[in-house]
Amino acid sequence: MKRLSYEGVVAAAPVTVPYVRYSIESAHWWLGRALGGLVRGAGVAKHEIDGMCVSSFTLAPDTAVGLTQHLGMSPRWLDHIPMGGASGVIGLRRAARAVQAGDAEIVACLAGDTNHVDSFRHTVSQFSRFAQDGVYPYGAGGPNASFALLTRNYMRASGATREDFGKLCVAQRANALHNPHALMKKPLSLEQYLDAREITEPIHLFDCVMPCAGADAFLVMREQRARALGLPYARILSTIERHNAWPDDPMQIRGGWAMDLQEFYEHAGLAPRDVDFVQAYDDYPVINMMQLEDLGFCGKGQAPEFVRRHSFTFDGSFPFNTNGGQLSAGQAGAAGGYLGMVEALRQLTGQAHAQVRNARVGLVSGFGMINYDRGLCTAAALLARSDA
Asked: Gene3D superfamilies given for it (predicted)?
């Protein structure tokens, strides 16, 4: 069955509520600030936003429906997307189809979390039934141990070195220095990366994201509405999502992107060589390597060599995570899955702090819900400048 195009539906009005390391506010407060930013930035009244997608780890015991009462909203279309780092792309694609079908005219896609002193420990302990029963009681809870296994296996299979992972981290830090919202404000050298303290072998300090509080958001609407509002926008060319991909792999060496790669590019009428920049979910460097391979930029096991050939800075070859990504901007819970999306929208509408020259097509990739030995959710979107 041929998929419908997204023609006539666009994304606009990227908003970031500046991140902080810790916050005594609730997730509701952060999400409310993001909604306020959308209303002010787009010049729309709150009641004109008749659809909403929400992603948050710390919103509980509320879900998206509880948030509507807190925010004084009355949407006719609502979705709650608890998919972590894949939430931004999945929110985009579902909102786009809702607008396309006429179920909503303007959809606010919101993601945000607070970070109390004990928020991360609580989130890890309650993350999933698998975590509660099979991992956390034995002291292996949290992503560090899981990604240590994935990283060690990837290094053994591909020949990747810590220097390869470090090159990505150093490049992202260089990009982050231009991003006023990034929490990491100091340059990072490869020597500093290599000398950093070990967390869980082979992962060291700068391989790990910093949990923080913050929110990101954007709007989805018809192109005519964006023009009437005077909003710069990006066109949606193609999206994919996949869950629990390759379940028979004894350990994750590939993500769901690889299952849908051909359809992804064919739907947009593009190839990997047509992409001007990539915003990839980056809670650990190994997942960057996996995305470079599974999204078609190099062959399986060839990402280390690909990394050695490129600079990854916004003004160099293969611009990658041009706002610093989570590794240098911080991980505001579920907003980590929106970080790449709002940056892609800024790049394609000329609003980026570190602008990629002549950027016409961008790719956003998401990865989420790690369950000990694999991430369960993957997604990707191809977006284009309005005149591209």
From this structure: 3.40.47.10
